[in-house]
Design goal:
The protein is α/β, with parallel strands linked by helices. It folds into three domains: 216 residues, FAD/NAD(P)-binding domain; 106 residues, Guanine Nucleotide Dissociation Inhibitor, domain 1, CATH 1.10.405; 124 residues, Guanine Nucleotide Dissociation Inhibitor, domain 2, CATH 3.30.519. It contains 15 helices and 19 strands. The strands form five sheets. It has a seven-stranded mixed β-sheet, sandwiched between helices. Strand 10 and strand 11 form a beta hairpin. It is globular. The model has no long low-confidence stretch (mean pLDDT 94).
């Protein structure tokens, strides 16, 4: 049986591993940390369970499709509940907007903000649905290795219908002018890694994922998805080795032959790197096998990093939902300080997740589990001083908004930022989400999934196709495994 080594146990790595094993590979996953899941690890302390990374469950069809390939459904692993309201947005004038799950109520909400916008939203989401369904069926499952993949007249015509060459900002502002509605529709791309002006209008499909398909939550927390993926991997015979950081990929005659850790050396007929792409190339391969140099990586536009603060509070906090977006400062200024003139923000936007509003299991009785995220430019200097400055600022903002003192009731606390992303995930410039989804970094313009210099080396995850986010990571792993399977087929004939 041919041997495959997968580096990293994030969603892309686990997805690739399970898919490969189902196709006949003997698969070993090598993970540098002490638990599987990559950024979706958990941290537990004193009765609190914190999801350390992803907290939004969108595009539930991608998860369901993955489970179905192994004869399972989502319900076999966890209870999925739809949040209603999906989330709350707080604006500069302290207006609160609660996003209902029901489309009729959502249209009425839009109409209450701007006359005629209810029908405009219906048309906008119809267009976004077309983009979503077309992208999922025609675009995101491609390896994007060569431009010829897209040399099809029907596909080229669809590309224009998908508004690949216009910006999300243009598309949104053609239909809506009320600042609350504009910010709401533009916010998903802030976390996809670019300003609305530099993001292709194609990504309005994320508005469909958000507003139509809905915001969900797996009871027990996002790490339940990791457990599901690990369970599937193990059912397929995948071996997952924790606390084994890869130190070298040995290449002979343009083929990866061995993967070396401090503990062991593993023979390989195939290597799929779910580890950070830049780190894998620059640190695990000899220079002759690096397709991209340091200059290339330095010129990439990265998605944001983040300052994350995990808080265990020993009382209930009113006026918070499960998901809360604080747009109570200058949206454009913060975006510019992430992408145009990188610096710690003047007056930050931020996000608060309070899963204990939905799930009693993540905090002791009568307490709250709070996760605060402030987007930051990748590559900034990290320091305890800056972390404390913004930690204090964000807590004061939450106290002001909720009308409740929190500081004296914090019994568990941890911060996480650029230096942690680098040390735990070898993350390039400490980024949290991967490459920015600009047009110049979409599809064939992303770093190649298949190494041009090492015949049996593939990359997967947020620095290659299709892009950042949990569902794209799952798809990325499946694409890498599918393409790698061609090596297995070729060896049989």
């Amino acid at each position: 049986m041919p041997k495959a080594i997968v580096i990293g146990s994030g969603f892309s790595g686990l997805s690739a591993a399970a898919t490969l094993a189902k196709s006949g590979w003997q698969v070993t996953v090598l993970e540098k940390n002490d638990q599987a899941g990559g950024r979706a690890r958990i941290w537990k302390k004193d009765g609190y369970t914190f999801d350390m990374g992803p907290s939004w469950y969108w595009m539930q069809d991608v998860f369901e499709s993955f489970y179905n390939q192994f004869g399972k459904t989502t319900a076999d692993f966890y209870q999925l509940v739809r949040l209603n309201p999906s989330y709350k947005v707080v604006y500069e004038d302290q207006t609160e907007m609660f996003l209902p799950a029901e489309i009729e109520k959502l249209e009425a909400l839009f109409e209450s903000k701007e006359a005629g916008s209810g029908l405009k939203l219906r048309a906008f989401l119809k267009d976004a649905k077309y983009k979503y369904e077309t992208a999922m069926s025609e675009y995101v499952t491609r390896i994007c290795d060569k431009p010829t993949e897209f040399f099809d007249l029907k596909l080229i015509m669809k590309s224009f219908q998908m508004e690949l060459f216009s910006s999300l900002k243009q598309t949104v502002r053609k239909k809506f002018s009320h600042p609350h509605l504009v910010k709401l529709l533009e916010f998903p791309v802030l976390f996809l890694g670019a300003t609305p002006a530099n993001t292709p209008a194609l990504y309005s499909m994320m508005n469909y994922a958000d507003l139509s398909l809905g915001t969900w939550y797996p009871m027990g927390g996002m790490n339940e998805i990791v457990k599901a993926f690990v369970s599937i991997c193990e059912s397929q015979g995948v071996k997952i080795n924790l606390c084994e950081a890869v130190e070298k990929i040995e290449v002979h005659n343009k083929k990866a032959k061995q993967v070396i850790t401090a503990k062991n050396s593993y023979e390989a007929d195939l290597v799929i790197a779910g580890s950070d792409y830049e780190h894998t190339e620059q640190n695990l391969l000899d220079k002759v096998y690096r397709h991209y140099d340091e200059h290339y990586w330095d010129k990439r536009t990265m998605s944001p990093s983040s300052l994350l603060i995990y808080l265990g509070v020993n009382k209930r906090i009113p006026n918070l939902l499960h998901h809360n977006l604080f747009f109570d400062s200058n949206f454009d200024l913060h975006a510019a300080e992430i992408y145009n003139e990188p610096k710690w923000p003047t007056d930050p936007l931020f996000y608060v997740c309070c899963p204990s509003k939905t799930d009693d299991s993540v905090a002791p009785v009568g307490c709250e589990n709070i996760f605060v995220l402030m987007p930051l430019a990748a590559g900034l200097e990290d320091s305890d001083e800056m972390r404390k400055k913004y930690r204090d600022l964000l807590i004061k903002k939450i106290e002001t908004h909720t009308g409740t003192a929190i500081e004296q009731n914090i019994v568990v606390e941890r911060s996480y930022a650029m230096s942690d992303f680098k040390s735990d995930y070898n993350s390039f410039k400490g980024n949290a989400y991967g490459l920015a989804n600009t047009l110049a970094q979409t599809a064939i313009w992303k770093p190649k999934m298949k190494s041009p210099l090492v015949k049996n080396l593939f990359y997967t995850g947020q620095l290659t196709v299709p892009g950042p986010g949990v569902p794209p990571a799952i798809i990325s792993g499946q694409i890498a495994a599918r393409e790698a399977n061609k090596l297995l087929i070729n060896t049989k004939h």
